[in-house]
């Protein structure tokens, strides 16, 4: 039996007081936990209505994306082209893509409106002329929209990893328009629809604005209407490349209103939106009071129960930890492999005020020892495992707890209203057990496709 208390966690875990930077762990061989709720590029690509995805890569690499499409029941919107050894030796990569995509499209019962072509590592290693490829495809199918997407793992360590890249390419069919819908605003770059009760949504609708979002589009024509909107709003970090690209290509200005758990920052974001569109400011005093009530209620219900948080639940796990700690919640561990620069101020505050907060990696090889260890040790000793409430699937997995908030990417919550929803979800998690193993093995949790 592994003794978790005496295990050497160096490189995988550190007290925040000892963390030297926002990347406090060792990196090398990586461990992949079975918490699979996060969306991948296939799930995100399926958000584009009336589109078809074509993946071009080696058969071994195709297994994962094929299974994703099958799990979603979206095989009719998904095709593959296998790259074989002879294609590499003969140097006919361009012809393989052009002829393969042509064959796929001509065999479909009905042509899609748009095609997402995913090329892979081998095309870039060999210097495949993708500009020529897409020019020929557009020449053969002038009625279709094509865009370049990438299944290129090396991009994980670049400024635009595959996830932000595919979110950006989703909007590549929106181009500059002469007509602007002055009372329309887009929400850009989310996998999940934003809750109608979110602070900025209520403020915009109260001022007579229509909100457009790819997560709610049901036709390609409806999606194209987003090109006429006056402003783009992004609040998830992976959406930033998309709004910047749209400003450059389609001349649609944007506001980045980051998901936050800091009351002051939430107020400032709402004020920026009101000033930008010249609309009345929502009453934040009432919203803040409601958020305070909800968090205080959750804190009382938790009592001495420890809480853990992971980065899959929110891009700002340290900000959420600070909110809960400031209300007396026993936040024990934050699971994240890196913290975004936006979290630098709260990182410094937590180092000073809560120095014993544990930061823990999720991909370090030692983490394979943590999952289930506490429960197994308790069972061997003839006792009950400690009750822990987790926020996020990975935190639930590593703590081996049935008491968790099943939330990914912020859950579509934003602002004071988002804090209320989260606090209510924590209260539910304290009381009601979930089947953790069954839930976290579902890939792309909540993907409506």
UniProtKB/TrEMBL annotation:
This is Nitrogenase. Residues 54-430 form the Nitrogenase/oxidoreductase component domain. It comes from Cloacibacillus porcorum. InterPro entries: Nase/OxRdtase_comp1. It comes from the Bacteria. Transmembrane segments: none annotated. GO terms for molecular function: oxidoreductase activity. Pfam families: Oxidored_nitro (PF00148).
């Amino acid at each position: 039996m592994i003794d978790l208390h005496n295990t050497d966690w160096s490189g995988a875990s550190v007290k925040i007081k000892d963390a030297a930077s926002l990347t406090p762990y060792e990196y090398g061989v990586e461990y992949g936990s079975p918490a699979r709720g996060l969306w991948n590029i296939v799930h995100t690509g399926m958000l584009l209505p009336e589109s078809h995805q074509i993946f071009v890569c080696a058969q071994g690499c195709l297994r994962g994306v094929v299974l994703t499409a099958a799990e979603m029941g979206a095989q009719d919107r998904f095709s593959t082209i296998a790259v074989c050894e002879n294609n590499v030796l003969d140097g006919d990569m361009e012809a393989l893509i052009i002829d393969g995509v042509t064959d796929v499209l001509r065999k479909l019962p009905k042509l899609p409106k748009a095609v997402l072509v995913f090329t892979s590592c081998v095309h870039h290693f060999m210097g495949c002329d993708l500009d020529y490829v897409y020019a020929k495809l557009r020449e053969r199918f002038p009625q279709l929209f094509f865009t370049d997407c990438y299944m290129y793992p090396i991009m994980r360590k670049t400024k635009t990893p595959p996830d932000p890249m595919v979110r950006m390419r989703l909007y590549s069919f929106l181009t500059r328009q002469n007509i602007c819908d002055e009372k329309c605003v887009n929400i850009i770059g989310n996998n999940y629809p934003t809750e109608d009760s979110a602070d900025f949504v209520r403020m915009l609708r109260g001022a007579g604005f229509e909100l457009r979002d790819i997560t709610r589009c049901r036709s390609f024509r409806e999606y194209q209407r987003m090109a006429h909107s006056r402003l783009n709003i992004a609040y998830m970090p992976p959406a930033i490349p998309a709004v910047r690209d749209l400003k450059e290509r389609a001349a649609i200005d944007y506001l980045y209103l980051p998901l936050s758990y800091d009351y002051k920052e939430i107020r400032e974001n709402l004020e920026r939106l009101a000033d930008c569109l010249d609309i009345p400011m929502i009453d934040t005093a009432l919203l803040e009071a409601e958020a305070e009530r909800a968090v205080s209620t959750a804190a009382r219900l938790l009592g001495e129960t420890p809480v853990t948080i992971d980065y899959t639940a929110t891009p700002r796990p340290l900000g959420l930890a600070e909110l809960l700690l400031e209300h007396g919640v026993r936040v024990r561990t934050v699971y994240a492999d890196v913290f975004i620069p936006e979290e630098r101020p709260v990182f410094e505050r937590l180092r000073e005020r809560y120095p014993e907060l544990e930061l823990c990696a999720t991909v370090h090889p030692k983490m394979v020892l943590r999952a289930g260890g506490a429960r197994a040790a308790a069972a061997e000793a003839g006792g009950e495992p400690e009750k822990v409430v987790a926020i996020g699937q990975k935190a639930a997995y590593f703590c081996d707890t049935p008491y968790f908030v099943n939330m990914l990417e912020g859950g579509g919550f934003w602002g004071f209203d988002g804090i209320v929803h989260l606090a209510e979800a924590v209260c539910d998690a304290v009381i009601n057990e979930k089947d953790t193993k069954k839930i976290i093995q579902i890939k792309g949790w909540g993907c409506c496709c």
